[in-house]
Amino acid sequence: MFTGIVEELGEVVAVENRGDSSVFRLRGPLVTEGAKHGDSIAVNGVCLTVVDTADGEFTADVMAESLKRSSLGALAPGSRVNLERPMALGGRLGGHIVQGHVDGTGTVVARTPGEHWEIVRIALPAGLRRYVVDKGSITVDGVSLTVVEAGEDFFTVSLIPTTLQLTTLGIKQPGDPVNLEVDVLAKYVERLLADGAVPGTGEPVA
User: Rounded to two decimals, what is the model's pTM?
Assistant: First the structure.
């Protein structure tokens, strides 16, 4: 489980294409400190399993499903990536509950700079629209953000200087893809309501 608070701006060192999967080697001295085989690290919001580590770098397998649903397939050596380790038990939930399971990709549409911040408009896939609401939570490339405006086919977020400086969202340009993970609580509520009964009672939802 992650919180969407990026710990380190890392870099793709190498990508080995294996047809229906890829092997990534990434540089991230902070997140690899103490990491071992089998640990999880979120890369641009995608939870990956560490295969091995060495000299501040780690490798991870990326399966076809992850390549299909996320923008990881567009990464190349030199690409910058947001890195986060899972939240430790008892740690502070600084962002919101993030699973590292990307729901789809959006596209940066426009950037509007302010005096000390920037408004970014992102195109939203139709299948995710119902989960995005004004002032709700969303994860963009692994960054926990608050939705400013939720439109029919877009949403906007306001980025503070820290986010602009320490994550990939500071360098994303119109046309660039971004990974999106909607609030998992919204998906559970939708499923419960679709079943038509109050959990544990069998009574219809009013």
Answer: 0.89
